[in-house]
Design a protein that fits this description.
Aldehyde Dehydrogenase, Chain A, domain 2; 326 residues; 25% strand; Aldehyde Dehydrogenase, Chain A, domain 1; transferase; 2 domains; globular; alpha/beta; ATP binding
Length: 326
Amino acid sequence: MEDPIGHVLKKTELADGLVLEKTSSPLGVLLIVFESRPDALVQIASLAIRSGNGLLLKGGKEARRSNAILHKVITEAIPESVGGKLIGLVTSREEIPDLLKLDDVIDLVIPRGSNKLVSQIKNSTKIPVLGHADGICHLYVDKSANMNMAKRIVLDAKLDYPAACNAMETLLVHKDLVHTILFNDLIVDLRSEGVTLYGGPRASALLNIPEVHSFHLEYSSLACTIELVDDVRAAIDHIHEHGSAHTDCIIAEDQEVVDLFLGQVDSAAVFHNASTRFCDGARFGLGAEVGISTSRIHARGPVGVEGLLTTRWILRGSGQVVNGDK
């Protein structure tokens, strides 16, 4: 991978001998607060080093000793020209509120964990926060779908890793499919795999399943909501009203319907005929990720090295002045 720092993105000669360059630059100092999984420390540290950012890491208490050893291994391996102090490890939970006040020192906070953690951090700091609170991913099965393909994708999206933020939480189904054998097979397969089914007002009555109190649910377990919709436009409206702008997918063969869905669904990642589980930094070819951002400002989707860079303008002249634009 070529060095991402100081990369010339655009070069313009504004006047004779006056050259402007737009270059890539590190963001500064990152504070990453993550829960449980120590593999997050390794991914985040590698991306921060590659993008030239300083890093403060706060992991969950469940992996305190693992985090300490991994931090030691990484900082000892960093060349002296870079310096092991590039990466700091915060061990006490009590230090977090104090760190969140340091908006003059820390440039970006990235929380990785529960909805509660992300919301708490967003509500208690002036520092910009990158990430997502919810991963309410939808999968819409259109009436033009290949139902054998749909079954394979739906089962993967729900069963492959139910606790992941890119797992399917809501299954939207075109109303014309309800009485088909293949749709019935899909419901049977979900149940046989241990998935607890809940329904919206239409689906609960028809499928005789408990009705959900809210569509804005991230189960993170072997459970999902099913609802029937009239068409692709109704599916798009449902996603915009109840989704979290993370990852949403359509299974369809009608190209007009597909194009409408891909063009209109305003999520960080929008898929056609593929499992939502593909929304991942490693699978996107980014090597790793510091997390997935549903923000519309700065980075969006899985955040790799590029998402940890900003830009600087470099102007090289030879005595030019503005002089009233003469």
